## 1
Amino acid sequence: MSQILRKEKLAPDIFRMRLSAPLIAASRHPGQFVILRATPDGERIPLTIADACSEAGWIEVIVQVAGAGTMRLSRLRQGDSVADLVGPLGQPTRIKRYGRCIGIAGGVGIAPLYPIAQALKAAGNSVTIILGARSRDKIILRSEIEGWADEVLLATEDGSAGRKGLVSDVFLDLARQGRTFERAVVIGPAAMMRAVSKLTLGQGIPTVVSLNPIMIDGTGLCGGCRVEVDGKIKFACVDGPEFEAEGIDWEPFMRRLRSYQDFERQTRERESCRLMNA
Amino acid sequence: MPTDERLTGSRREPLGPVSRVPMREQEPAVRTSNFAEVPFGYSDEEARIEANRCLGCRKAPCVAACPVAVPIPTFISQISDGAFAAAARTIRQANSLPAICGRVCPQEDQCEKECLRGRRGEALAIGHLERFAADWERRGGRIEAPARKPETGRRIAVAGSGPAGLTAASELAKEGCSVVVFEALHELGGVLTYGIPEFRLPKAIVRQEIADLEALGVKFVRNFVVGRTETVDRLLGPDGFEALFIGTGAGLPAFLGIPGESAIGVYSANEYLTRSNLMKAYQAGASTPILCGRRVVTVGGGNVAMDAARTALRLGAEVSTIVYRRGEAEMPARAEEVRHAREEGVVFRTLANPVAVIEDGEGFVRGLTCLQMELGEPDASGRRSPKPVPGSEFEVDCDIVVVAIGNRPNPLISSTTPDIRVSAKGTILANPADGRTSRPRVYAGGDIVTGAATVIRAMGAGKAAARSILEDLAGTR
């Protein structure tokens, strides 16, 4: 059991949750994640640790309501507890002094990117962040990032904030201006990571992505999160979740994300009915 | 053929029947549509009749063949006297998980293999009787916690709540140590919970055996990954634990490494069984999904493969097929598991080696291409190694493939604790006789040391390590 210390809405369907977790807060590093279950019969939901405070003993996760599990989680309130919380899981990000770093996030991908970019900044790198979302109200963490990043650029599909277009358009603008970077971190939906990392790699920038496959235990047991990297089977939970984008075989990875789409649609419908009737 | 009158039925010495009392089971046609346990267990009467078959050998070769040295003739004679509670107590002295071992131990390769009864006719059904005694005690609802020695103030950590960890915890608690067991998952029991299906080992039994340990004073912490939530250094640091036993099991599933293995519908047996057992995906309204499939192929010939193939039937598969690259005689699964699977209609395609998963246009599994094999010379394991028959490719139609070809050791602790030495395979290097590792105060046993083996071997290792811990601690303070 882990208590929800604070919960706030960041955007429609996106909320931030602060959980009491002293041990995880003390041992976690940027890039790592937790698995939680909202209720004792709930599914195991992997979530990146977006922020943590070891002195106060809390961690924060940012949740986009997508399936039945995250819907249930979203119904818990401050003061409630989640049934289970385990972590930190996965390999920490390799943080070193690269020089100029660019972080590119699509949607809620900024949640995992946030602690990584902050650690890169702390290690003496200059950090440019590109944030993309469908519209202005879906851009999260903007003011927090503007507090420490060297540069924050926005892209929205409807043009309500920043450049009208995609994060890739912003990146290409930079490339055309002759801007160069020594390291790129790209996090967002799989299709976005695949497309954007292709561009950054095309510019000769070593690029890391953080994968979000289906997983159950998060400790290497089930192998559901397997992904082919450099022709070898890797488990995102123990070998990742970050991998150099260059070696990833995206096609099967993206396909496997769709394994349960029928089930997910059904449970989402069932869950939202319960929500309406509640 | 000469007959030994003593064993065949006998005028002079009525030693009872050569055959064991069979255990009643759910009918195959019925049981494939439920997840309830298959064998029913002996009645009091059946148990006493079977127990009467024991020859009461003075040297008791059965005890020597038991990895935890259960005093078998003693508890058997207590059953035959009707002293069922005493029998259960006798077993519990040596074995902290009797209801589990009575179900999943490979007795035919251990105690029952050495049973003199087996030379003429069937060996005594020691496993069935162990199960009987443990169940009888549990049904009575009054399980006597074994005696616990006075508190020693010793603090021991155990990583993993599977058979090795539970046994080590039990042994140490009985000696008055204060023991904390850390489990990474949200439920306790390790492979007993996520791996072995309900129809072979009801989870209520696992929970009961764990509750017994709690009654003995063992503390359990779920959702705690040793090496990550806290490092080994930290656990063993000042104000921490005096020793750590690592029983984290063989976690990482092996895959075939063939084309198409990332298609939708290819599962490791771990994932397939975890979804069904731990996450209860077989229940209506479960929050974790499982792809059921009409035609399921399980690759492998061990107990885990049998568990997966039989689970598939219960999840509604029309055809459940085992594909195994060697012959049936070479299958590592217990004979009983193979028999149960066959009775339930599992199809066996032995001497078949998968070479590719066939996908439909949408990325879902459509079939499995296999090569026909023939047996050649015995390999290092003593089993005849299979060789492909050239040009013998054939396809098995299926929509789910479950890969049950074994596990590699879980790297979580070794990768975060560099001074614990591991083998090239990643298993922790520990002395099999005493569980000591390369790092003082750290002990290991079970699958994390041996690679995938049996519940009882892991328990034996947990027990041996507990003895070493007590020995080593006795020399300090």
Note: The two ends of chain A are 24 Å apart (CA to CA).
## 2
Amino acid sequence: MGNGRRIRKFLSLSAKVMIGLLLIVDVYPIIWMFLNSFRTNNEIYANPIGLPKSFDFSVFVEAWVKADFGRALFNSFYIAFFQVVIIVAAASLSAYALTILNVRGKNIIYNVIVSLQVVSGQIILIPLFALMRDMGLLDHLWANILSGAALSFPLATMIFKGGFQSIPRELYESAVVDGCSDMRFFLKMVFPLAKPTFSSVVIYHALFSWNEYLFALTFLRSAKNRTVTTAIQVFFTQWQANWTQLFAILCLALIPILILYIFLQKYFIAGMVAGAVKG
Amino acid sequence: MKKKGVKAVIPYLYFLPMAILLAIFVIYPLYSLVATSFTKWDGLSAKEFIGMKNYVKAFRSEKFWYSMKLTFVWTLLSILILQPVGVLLSVIVEYVVKRRRASGVMRVLFFLPMLMSMVAIGLLWQLIYNPSLGLLTSVLSKLNLIDIMNPPNLLGSRSTVLAAAFIPTIWQWSGFGMILTSAAMMSIPSELTEAAAIDGAGKFSQFFRITLPLLMPTIFLGMTINMIGAFKGFDMLYAMTAGGPANYTTLTSIFIYKLSFTENKFGYACAVSVILILIVIVFTMIFNAAGRKIDERFT
């Protein structure tokens, strides 16, 4: 009996150690990144893992200025904002027509939209590039906004459709009898009832747009149009040897999302799961 | 009569904004992709129709087949590793760790890498793998596992680069698999496991006989998501290795990008894109069919 207890104690202790190790391996790269952004190049060259001697924030300012990071943040925000507005407006209206309104051929329309999901930005990158050039949109933020929104429609429509399906149709039918217009019903009933779905779509697609790289790399060639992802990548090729600043720019890229995540944790996770499950 | 016709059209207007943007930015490019794949085009001068030559060229090209092989290996690794690691993390967080606060903190920490863009992940791991100053070299040399004077360059040699490049993907996406699994675990009615507990089933058999089967659809869903993500696998690799050294990490997606934007072989690149999307479609159909089977069996 005493032996059994000792074995169990040993097992639980070793489980704790294993979990602790796993956590360290998982989180340490990010901690390393933050710590080293406060250490000088000489300190890093002498010993890549160590604690900073002081917390000097001027390196962040330097990296910010060199990368023109304010501009990159603005561009990323601009793209994400308008993209999400377009996605939410267009996809929610389509999903509304697909679930609640009287439309013939719902299944066909829905299947066409869903089947477009296999098309990724990578597959149609070349014709999109040529199209943007012909439309005069190359090196213009709206090239990314419009193409990114269009490619996100299938998934967003699926998420919205899933959310709207729980709204009882009797509600709509009685509202119509009372003379309520379709648009009014959408704004006054569907939107308030499906708020969680809307927030999932916003979070998922905002995060997706914020982290987008391929279109930013291909369509936005000039320095003034860099987004956060291309700005940090260019920064890495320009300042290869300045490790302190490389760490600092990575931190700068993570901090805005980290702050949002801390405040909106539940919505983040719900949004990611919704996006994945419907995808 | 006419008024009724107009009224029946109105609901279709709700599709209009989406239909216009899809037509311009997805469907037309898709058509253009196929059309261009039968031409020789440098991106600037007029397209010259050459029939199936680009496809023949691809099937005869060693580089193309090598990129396909890499894409296949990368996809297979993604399907087989990412979601199972996520399930493992989820089991640790939800089952092994007893204190709820600790579970909550761990969930947040394991999810943390998901907040970084794949580009940032690629760049950070470039620093981690740096042979002279990287985190890995320092840790391994402090543990006396490697010779500090002659550290391995994991991203620089053919034998290690693919595995080394895949590890950051595990680091990032296992957190996603965990969230997905945990969400599904929470939706399992607790009566089921409680009933099994009353029947004398231990925690172990509760998990394997009740929870795990109920999780199967979710696990498969995670695998499908990782399969689709793997075919895209561009951002992180391009930022970390740019397809190198030589072309040892040039997945088909990177191959296409280089063909078009560094070699100006746009027609050829379009043909390779068409082949890739056909493969993606086949894989997606297989996975969807399998997913339906699994849904039927386990729910």
Note: Chain A touches chain B through 79 residues (CB under 8 Å).
